[in-house]
UniProtKB/TrEMBL annotation:
Annotated protein name in UniProt: Transcriptional regulator, TetR family
Organism: Actinacidiphila guanduensis
Pfam families given in the database record: TetR_N
Annotated signal peptide: none
Keyword DNA-binding found: yes
Stored InterPro entries: Homeodomain-like_sf, HTH-type_TetR-like_transc_reg, HTH_TetR, Tet_transcr_reg_TetR-rel_C_sf
Domain (HTH tetR-type): residue spans on this chain: 8-68
DNA-binding region: 31-50
Alphabetically ordered keywords of this record: DNA-binding
GO molecular function per UniProt: DNA-binding transcription factor activity; transcription cis-regulatory region binding
């Protein structure tokens, strides 16, 4: 007897709801019962859709990364030049409304670095997702080696500034540092 076919739309809806729950509550205590109760489904429903807690966590990480990259990618698209594109990314990522999302992102990042084999997919994409967009923002005539070096500097600087902002909530100091960095890209 064949099992019920997977309803991919329902799984995607549940995954988005699990991601929203995880952004709000963190992933340290991510387990079937609290998530199911919050979503108004049974733990069995989650098991049916995600099979194991580890697979659910992997799916959450993948969707979170996709959300962040899609939103920042939209900020970059259509922006003329690297400095303008990076400014759009900074404005989006430093928005206080995105704080919980990025706190989760950094928590996941830390956990992935401690267990790289478990989070290989996350680690493989967490930098690579940004690199192509940032290289492209430098224009078709940019030297590929220099464009990669600049994109690497941008990713590291934006993430460092964002981590500082989330840690200290010193918006004015971090904003001034970000402005200084963005001005250097315009030169």
């Amino acid at each position: 007897m064949a099992g019920r076919p997977v309803d991919h739309q329902r799984r995607a809806e549940l995954l988005d709801a699990v991601v929203d729950f995880t952004v709000e509550h963190g992933f340290a205590d991510l387990s079937w019962r609290p998530v199911a109760a919050a979503l108004g489904v049974s733990p069995t429903t989650l098991v049916h859709r995600f099979v194991t807690k580890e697979q659910m966590l992997q799916a959450v990480l993948g969707r979170l990364r996709e959300r962040i990259f899609r939103a920042t990618g939209e900020a970059v698209r259509g922006q003329p030049g690297l400095a303008t594109a990076v400014r759009a990314v900074w404005e989006r990522t430093s928005d206080p409304a995105r704080g919980a999302e990025f706190r989760l992102f950094f928590a996941v990042y830390g956990r992935a670095l401690q267990a790289p084999e478990q989070f290989a997919d996350f680690l493989e994409h967490v930098v690579a997702d940004w690199m192509e967009s940032l290289r492209a923002a430098q224009g078709p005539d940019a030297d590929p080696v220099a464009a990669t070096r600049t994109a690497t500097l941008v990713v590291a600087t934006i993430r460092g500034l964002l981590l500082d902002l989330l840690t200290t909530d010193d918006r004015e100091r971090v904003r001034e540092a970000a402005e200084s960095f963005l001005a250097s890209l315009e030169e």
